């Protein structure tokens, strides 16, 4: 149970700091600084959580990462289900906290949807959005599988490598899809946005569930083939 609680807390913190930063600084093509700040917020949060809860749960805080670990034999189905449920609850809690903070403080949400993902950057193309999420998640999960492999020898720098990889994929992906690579991170903000009257993110939410999961599965298959 402790590892499930750790995953819940980790995912909640990721949404609060990552999506919260996006809400404050905005993420549009005319505001490149917002891209960098948001990318750093997500990546540095992963670094912080890796060294906080990594020894408890492995710090997946992402159903796509958990799927990659499952498919490479690093966890069983029971734990996978427990992790995903905990991550989704954590993401929902994080988005709800942001709703309370921004609502009570009368702060403008520059993203218009609690930092939720969308297809505006790819002109509404579902195919392009799926491709972006598959490719970026493949890169991210491959890096995680490599860093956490028993054959790896990265010492205490694993969390830093993973966090910086997330920064890089965000720098490219923010302008295209808002960068999900994490179904839970997309689910929480989209649901809270819908509750608050903005149902647009819910319409494309499936893209940010299917894309990352497909990318993670592909990463697991390719990594296993390369490692053998």
Measured as a percent range, the helix fraction is over 70%
Structural class: mainly alpha
The SSE order reads HHHHHHHHH
Strand content: under 5%
- Rounded to the nearest angstrom, the radius of gyration is 16 Å
Compute the number of strand runs. 0
* Continuous helix count: 9
State the end-to-end CA separation: 33 Å
Please, what is the average pLDDT? 94
**Low-confidence residue ranges:** none
| Overall outline | globular
Main sheet: strands, sense, barrel: none
Structural description of this entry:
The chain has 228 residues and is mostly helical. It is 72% helix and 0% strand. It is built from nine helices and no strands.
Could you give a quick summary of the protein structure above?
With 228 residues, this protein is mainly α. It has helices at residues 2-25, 32-57, 63-71, 77-104, 126-148, 158-173, 183-195, 200-203, 207-227.
Any chance you could write out the topology, listing elements then pairs?
Blueprint: H1 2-25, H2 32-57, H3 63-71, H4 77-104, H5 126-148, H6 158-173, H7 183-195, H8 200-203, H9 207-227
Summary tags:
228 residues, globular, mainly alpha
